[in-house]
Design goal:
Layout lengths: L15 H5 L4 E7 L5 H10 L1 H8 L2 E8 L16 E2 L2 H6 L3 E4 L7 H10 L3 E4 L2 H17 L4 E2 L11 H7 L5 E7 L2 H12 L4 H10 L8 H4 L2 H15 L9 E2 L7 H9 L2 E14 L6 E14 L11 E8 L3 E8 L3 H21 L21 E11 L4 H11 L4 E9 L9 E8 L2 E2 H12 L4 E10 L3
Parallel strand pairs: 1-2, 1-4, 2-3, 4-5, 5-6, 8-10, 10-17
Antiparallel strand pairs: 7-9, 7-11, 9-10, 11-12, 13-15, 13-16, 13-17, 14-15
Helix pairs in contact: 2-13, 5-6, 6-11, 8-9, 14-15
Bound molecules: NADPH dihydro-nicotinamide-adenine-dinucleotide phosphate and L-homoserine.
NADPH dihydro-nicotinamide-adenine-dinucleotide phosphate (NDP) binds next to loops.
Length: 461
């Protein structure tokens, strides 16, 4: 630039003070004031100007519906905002944030909002995994928006990247740690040797667990998230019933110790993948969605996901491998995701734009156990007698399941005397779940086998 040239005058950036001038007001109804809802209320009350500058409208907290007006709250809130009449609150609002959880009355209240044209933000994966398609259709019909970034992996932006940033690519696989409670429990068991019950109690105290932690421990919470991720990633409806699900209740301290000794860590993984079945011209595409405890090599990036943190791996044909990592649960992190949805919903409302649609564009078949190949780790308690190992190995061979590695630990008795016991741990090459199930059933029937102590999938080898 020469000295004679003058710089164009800089346009002043709209700053947070400009938010105070926003002429449009959008009334926000908050349904629920628990771990997440109370943090959303705090942000709405504390950051009004900044939120107004970013969304183009003042987001006025019209009220907060709760079950009990007298419960102690995590944050100080004007008492007059609380109400036990959720329906009247919804009727008075432009935008609704549902953070009650559970199916009813959340479902009816969301429908009530949508039917009057009010957009809704929710973190309710249980409801969406059960009734998502019907709710999205109703939102489309009423030109309302239903956003749910907080429903999967807490603070991590994962819904928007899959739904928008990757909408021009072909996602082939999503692999994630999407439940903070179970990751916290498994991590505590692995690193401190904590007992399962103590680790769960601490996860509850820290606000990670669902109101009924069975949904976390049994894998149902992760399964609901897996269904949502698969629906968006593969553009096909996937419901909770389509997800094969196994929780962590049967993962023992012995499993964790054995995994550790062999250089593995156990994580509850949600896996959604496109699967090709059949050959050549007869090949068809389907999808498999499952949640189960999984052995991962300690050097795998997901193995480094500690505490209540979540991470989601996405593999897409053109983008390659992407990893999203962050806080997967807790009031403030989850409130961040809710607020992101709320601001972008408000922007669209200000612009008079129609709600975004999530309609699936195709219907892929779910692939059954015969089409899924995985490696397995199998633990057995056997009598320490000559020939036992070869009898067990021959059962693997009969079912075409190839053994990659085996480790034996002797417990008591003179070796091979028939008085002691041995623990055998096998790692297989990739096999179908069906072949593995038949192998395990036949191994259980061998006289020398006292019990099958664990059957865990292995990924990342
Ligand atoms: P909480 O159990 O902490 O809070 C639920 C709130 O909803 C409470 O304020 C409760 O009122 C209110 N509520 C429940 N039932 C009713 C009812 N029938 N009528 C009126 N109010 C009702 O839940 P969270 O904040 O933990 O979770 C909220 C949602 O966010 C859930 O869908 C959850 O799955 C999801 N989520 C939670 C995360 C987390 O880390 N906690 C992370 C990601 C998503 P009262 O206080 O009076 O009992
Ligand atoms: N209970 C859930 C978890 C909260 O532990 O991940 C976040 O969805």
């Amino acid at each position: 630039m020469t000295e004679t040239q003058t710089r164009p005058e800089r346009k002043a950036l709209p700053d947070e003070a400009a938010g105070a001038e926003a002429s449009k007001v959008l009334k926000v109804a908050l349904l629920g004031c628990g771990t997440v809802g109370s943090q959303v209320a705090r942000i709405l009350l504390e950051d009004g100007d900044a939120l107004a500058a970013r969304s183009g409208a003042r987001l006025e907290l019209a009220g907060i519906a709760v079950r009990s007006l007298d419960s102690k709250r995590d944050v100080d809130l004007p008492r007059e905002l609380l109400t036990d009449d959720a329906e009247a609150l919804v009727d008075s609002a432009d935008l609704v944030v549902e953070l009650m959880g559970g199916i009813e009355p959340a479902r009816s209240l969301i429908l009530r909002a949508i039917r009057k044209g009010a957009s809704v933000v929710t973190g309710n994966k249980a409801l969406l995994a059960q009734d998502g398609p019907a709710l999205f259709e109703e939102a489309d019909r009423n030109n309302a928006e239903l956003s749910f970034e907080a429903a999967v992996a807490g603070a991590i932006p994962i819904i928007r990247p899959i739904r928008e940033s990757l909408s021009g690519d072909r996602i082939t696989r999503v692999l994630g740690i999407v439940n903070g409670t179970t990751n916290y429990i498994l991590d505590q068991m692995d690193t401190t040797g904590a007992a399962f019950a103590d680790a769960l109690a601490e996860a509850q105290r820290l606000g990670y667990a669902e109101a009924d932690p069975t949904a976390d421990v049994e894998g149902h919470d992760a399964a609901a998230k897996a269904a949502l991720l698969a629906t968006l990633a593969f553009h096909t409806p996937v419901s909770l019933d389509d997800v094969r699900c196994q929780g962590i209740a049967n993962v023992t301290a012995e499993d964790i110790a054995a995994a550790k000794e062999s250089g593995f860590v156990i994580k509850l993984l949600a896996i959604a993948e496109l699967v090709r079945t059949g050959d050549g011209g007869a090949a068809t595409e389907g999808t498999s969605v499952r949640v189960h405890p999984t052995l991962l090599p300690r050097e795998h990036p997901l193995a480094a996901v500690r505490g209540a943190y979540n991470a989601v791996f996405v593999e897409a044909e053109n983008a390659g491998q992407l990893m999203f990592y962050g806080a997967g649960a807790g009031g403030r992190p989850t409130a961040s995701a809710v607020m992101g949805d709320l601001v972008s919903t408000a922007r669209r409302a200000v612009a008079g734009a129609p709600g975004r649609t999530d309609t699936a564009t195709r219907r892929l078949p779910m692939v059954g156990v015969e089409g899924i190949f995985t490696s397995y780790s199998i633990g057995l308690e056997v009598a320490d007698q000559p020939g036992v190992l070869s009898r067990v190995a021959s059962v693997f061979a009969e079912h075409g399941v190839s053994i990659e590695a085996m480790r034996q630990t002797l417990e008591g008795g003179a070796p091979g005397s028939g008085t002691g016991r041995a623990e055998l741990r096998f790692v297989t090459h990739r096999a179908t779940e069906q072949a593995l199930a038949e192998t395990v059933a036949d191994i259980k029937n061998l006289d020398a086998v006292e019990s099958v102590t664990s059957v865990l999938r292995v990924e990342g080898v």
